[in-house]
Amino acid sequence: MTETQFEAPARGVSDGSAGSSRPTGQPVSLACRDGIVLHGHTWPARTAAVGSVIINPATGVLARYYHYYADFLAGQGFDVLTYDYRGIGLSRPESLRGCGYRWREWGEQDFDAALRHMDAARPGLPLHVVGHSIGGYLPGLSPKAGRIDRMLTMGAQYAYWPDYASGHRLRLFLKWHVAMPALTAMFGYFPGKRLGWLEDLPAGVANEWSFRRARMERTHPAAERSDVLRRFEAVTAPILAVTMADDDIGTVAAIRRTLDYYRNAGVQQVLLEPEDYGLPEIGHFSLFHSRHREGFWRDSVSWLRDGINPWPAHVLPL
Predict the structure, then answer these.
(1) What is the pLDDT of residues 219-251, one digit of tens each?
(2) Fewer Cβ atoms within 10 A, N terminus or C terminus of the chain?
(3) What are phi and psi of 267, to 5 degrees?
(4) DSSP state of 176
(5) Strand residues in the chain grouped as ranges (E)
(6) DSSP 3-state assignment of 135?
């Protein structure tokens, strides 16, 4: 993709409030190294571009959930890419039954394709990643992960069940580690949408989630584990990892477990309370809702644009 393809499309800009039009980006296709083609949108900077941002979704969350945030970042001078992983949303095949897509391919292939795409589009710009949940873990799987200049993660973890919040651990274990694999075996994919449990998932993705061990590399073949660890170690980008105090899944321990793999990155982990933004709860998913435009979203720009942690008083010791 050339730089001219980041010219802003004709569209209505929305702040995500009631009654306003949904923001619309430019459709884009991403070619993975294994031949799979993904689909997403680009959001051209509406001022002089200061950097590129790839937004990595959470598991089972459509890329369109992040469109308001992408549009907001475009207004702050970022070229932004949103995309659906293989098996999800715009990148879903006609049938998920028998589909062999796995979590690891979302990082090794899908995020890698997004990274290469944005690098080719704007080779002279800093390239940043916003990763939500599994989206903050996946970057370390890309062979090109060393290209990343800065990362902002929210609730980033890889679903090792003992790290779930203690008061909710049994419920989450039964849901994601008992019911999900059973339903996946029954249907040949995880029928999450009909249950109201996120989107449908390919069997490989659901089973990696359900049977994840304490050491993530053990879900890879033994001969590949050293290479996987080296890819994470190649990331030298500063990482600001946001933990919400009322997040049942992305707990302090869960996020720390993921950050430990980024051993050569400059890591800061912050613990925020919903009260910091005048809200009774935020949890694992809410930070990308448009209600956070003048709060969390604007704070996040300080990190993405300037590398300044907007929450210095909330940093946890590592």
Answers:
(1) 899 999 999 999 999 999 999 999 999 999 999
(2) C
(3) -105, 135
(4) I
(5) 26-31, 37-43, 51-56, 78-83, 127-132, 150-154, 189-190, 201-202, 239-244, 267-272
(6) helix
φ and ψ at residue 154, rounded to 5 degrees: -125, 115
Question: What is the CB neighbour count within 10 angstroms for residue 26?
Answer: 16
**Residue listed under structure tokens 């979704």:** 57
DSSP state of 266: -
**Residue 84 near residue 38, CB atoms below 8 Å:** yes
Residue 158 tokens read as 């890889």
Whether residue 110 contacts residue 88, with contact meaning beta carbons closer than 8 Å, is answered with no
- Give tens-digit pLDDT for 274-314: 999 999 999 999 999 999 999 999 999 999 999 999 999 99
Confidence (pLDDT) at 20: 54
- Region 42-71: what's the mean pLDDT? 97
Q: How remote is the C-alpha of 103 from its chain's centroid?
A: 12
Q: What is the DSSP letter of 108?
A: I
Q: What distance lies between CA 59 and its chain's CA centroid?
A: 8
Instruction: Give the Cα separation of 71 and 74 in Å (integer).
Output: 5
DSSP output for 264-291: TS-EEEEEE-GGGGT-S--TTTGGGSGG
In this structure, what token pair is assigned to residue 99?
């589909």
Q: Nearest 5°: CA angle at 210, between 227 and 138?
A: 40
212, 206 in Cβ contact below 8 A? no
| The two three-digit tokens of residue 232, written as one number | 């994470």
- Closest by alpha carbon to 232, among 209, 268, 270, 260? 260
Cα-Cα-Cα-Cα dihedral sign, residues 292, 303, 23, 243: negative
